[in-house]
Amino acid sequence: MKSIVCTGNENNQTIAWAVQHKWPQATLMSLSKGWDLTFPSLQDRQQFCQEITKYNVFINSSFIAPDVQSTLLEIAVNEWMRKNIKGHVISLGTTLEWEHDQDHNFYIKSKLSLRNLSLKYNQQTGITGVKSTYLILGGVNNGRPENKDYTDPKLIVDAIEWVLDFPARIGLIQLDANK
Known about the structure:
This protein has about 180 residues and is α/β, with parallel strands linked by helices. It has a single domain, classed as NAD(P)-binding Rossmann-like Domain (Rossmann fold). It is about 40% helix and about 15% strand. The protein has helices at about 15-20, 40-50, 70-85, 105-125, 125-130, 155-165, and strands at about 5, 25-30, 55-60, 90-95, 130-135, 170-175. The chain has a 6-stranded parallel beta sheet, sandwiched between helices. Strand 5 (about 130-135), helix 6 (about 155-165) and strand 6 form a beta-alpha-beta unit. The protein is globular, with a radius of gyration of 15 Å.
């Protein structure tokens, strides 16, 4: 049975919102729910380390700050290995990774680092027992008119469900906008 935790705020039409619709029993982690995933204190980090072992699916959805998603991925894999949990981390990226936009350089570098780490862990599944998949998104339709041609978050979560149910490893998938 899958026990799912996802980063993000379900009050906005995001991946977390769609996760909550598909899997109402899923736990969501966001600042609004009391989770500061930048770990300003050792206690915050330890709390996350304890919490992640209650789940076997981690949807690493939200960009919080540079390299935070990579840190969350590392913690999930390490804690699951320590507890012998055969989980699956789905980390979300962006097609901006293919561009060289200097205005968002810290964001792009962070996502590229996350992709590389996710693919590294995917290669090590036989050692770690943890699957790691990186899902590149070409935009999310968050209900705003300017994003109407991007992918519906519920369809993205359907793709995540397919990856989770697929019996073999999937390292990388890209979902592009409808336009």
